[in-house]
Amino acid sequence: MLRRFAISFLVVSVGICAWGRTRPHYGGTLRVEIAGDAWERPDGIARRLVYDGLTQIDGGAVRPALATSWDTDNNNHRWQFRLRPGVRFHDGTSLTSAVVVVSLLASCSADCPWTTVKAVGPLVVFTSDSPTPNLPALLAGDQFLIALTLGADGKVPAGRIGTGPFQVAGFNNGVLALAANENCWEGRAFVDAMEIRVHRPVREQWLDLSVGRTDVVEVPAELLRQTQQQRLSVVVSQPVKLLALQVTDTGALTNLKLRGAIAAAIDRSAIYNVIFQKQGEVTASLLPQSMTGYSFLFSTDRDVNKAHELRGGLTTGTLTMGTQGDGAMQLAAQRIGLNLREAGFNVQMASAGAQRADLMLREIPLAGDEPGAALEQAMRSAGYTTPLTAKAAPELLKAEQTVLDEKKVIPLLDLPRAYAKGARVRDLRLSVDGMPDLADASLEATQ
C-alpha cells in the first residue's frame, strides 16, 4: 500500500521538488456517504478500515497481513499460519493465536472452509477432512476479518475493536466517526479521521458531493452513464459482483426440468441493455470471462421454446419472486417475472424485505482474482459448503459445470463497483473486490 512507502520516498533526491508537489498529504477528515450499513457483510465499508485478515489479496496474489507466512502439509488437509509479532488491537490488547481462534469461531461456527482451528504458540492451525488448497485466499475474505471478541479480562468488548488503520471514535446522527490508528502495523493512514454517513439515498449522496458536503459517494452500475452526463470523477472496478437468480430445490422445483425451464426463459440481454444500461457483462457462468477465459462456453441466449418443452405439462402453482436489493434489482426481478409468465409460470412478487422466496434475485461477491478461491467463495455464498479442491482449469470448468447443471444458481450479469470522488480527494483506488481503499486516499492540503 502507498502509506507503507511514503516515508522511504522522502530520501529520494532526484526530482524531489517535483515530487513534493504531488506526494500524498497527511491530515484532514475524509467524508464518505453510503446507502447501506457500514458494517454489513460482505461489503460494509467500515469493516476493512477497522479490521484486518490473516491474509490479503493485493496485485492478484495472496499476501501477508496479520499472518506473515503460512505452509501446508498432508495434501492441503492441514495449514498453519504464523502471526505477525508485536501487533496490538486498538485497545492495546496483544494479537495472539488464541484471540484469532476465538474471532474465527465467532464469525464461522458452521459450514466453514475448515474442520478445526486451534492455537499452537504463535501459529493458527487449520485442519480439514477434505483438501483446502484455496484456504489462504479465502481467509482474506470479509467473513474472516479478525475482531477482538473477548478481552484479556474475559469480558466481551463494548465496541468494535480491530487492528486496522482506523478505530471507532463514535456514532451519532447516522454518522460513524473513525480516527486514524497511530500504531497500525501497516503504517498510518494519510487522513486523520473519517466520517461515514450511512443509509443515505444515492441521489442525496450525489447532491452532497456536488455542493462539497462530502468527498466519496457510491455509483450503482445502472447509473454509471448518468455520471458521464454530470461529469463526476468516477473510479470503476472490473466485474466484482455476480447478479444471479437463486432457485429453491424444494416443492415443485425439486424437478430439475422445471428449474431448467426457468433458466431458459430469462432474457439476460433485456436486463443488461435496459435496466443496467449496458454496464458490466452478460454471463451464464459463475466467474467472469476475464478471470477464467472459459465463460463464453456457457450460452446466454434466451430460449422460450426450450422453456416450454422442459416445463411440458408440469405445473408449479404460484412461485414467489424476491430480491435482496431495491431500485434496479427490483426492476430486474419484475422483468424476470414477466419472462417466466411468458414461459407459462405463475409468478408473484414477494413483499419487500422477504428473506425467503422460491426465486431470489441477489448479488454474489466475486472477491479476488484467483479463480479457484473466487469460485469457492461464490459457491459458498450460494449455499454450497463442500471445499473446492480445484484451483485451475480444466478442473475449475468441470466444478462450475456441475454446479450450473443443477440450475439452483442462474448467473445473469457480471457487474462492477464504482465510486465518485470530490475535487480534494487524491489517490482513491479500488481494491480487488471493488471496495474503495480509503486508508491510502489523501486530501489536498488547505491553504
Account of the protein in words:
Helix content is 26%, strand content 23%. It has 447 residues and is of the alpha+beta class. It has three domains: 2-9 and 26-31 and 167-236 and 417-443, Periplasmic binding protein-like II (D-Maltodextrin-Binding Protein, domain 2, 3-Layer(aba) Sandwich); 52-144, Dipeptide-binding Protein, domain 1 (Alpha-Beta Complex), CATH 3.90.76.10; 241-415, Dipeptide-binding Protein, Domain 3 (Dipeptide-binding Protein, domain 3, Roll), CATH 3.10.105. Strand 6 (116-120) and strand 7 form a beta hairpin. It starts with a helix and ends with a strand. The model is unreliable at 4-21 (pLDDT under 50).
Task: Describe the protein's topology.
Blueprint: H1 2-9, H2 16-20, E1 29-33, H3 47-50, E2 55-58, E3 61-64, E4 67-73, E5 78-83, H4 97-107, E6 116-120, E7 123-127, H5 135-138, E8 166-172, E9 175-180, E10 193-197, H6 202-210, E11 216-218, H7 224-230, E12 233-236, E13 241-247, H8 256-265, H9 268-275, E14 281-282, H10 289-292, H11 304-311, E15 318-323, H12 328-342, E16 346-349, E17 359-365, H13 371-381, H14 395-405, E18 409-415, E19 418-421, E20 425-426, E21 442-443
Parallel strand pairs: 1-10, 15-16, 15-17
Antiparallel strand pairs: 2-3, 4-5, 5-7, 6-7, 8-9, 9-10, 11-19, 12-19, 13-17, 13-18, 14-18, 20-21
* Major β-sheet strand ordering: 14-18-13-17-15-16
CATH architecture of the largest domain: Roll
Measured on Cα atoms, how large is the radius of gyration? 23 Å
User: Could you say which overall geometry the principal axes of the C-alpha atoms support?
Assistant: globular
Q: Termini distance?
A: 27 Å
- Strand percentage, roughly? 15-25%
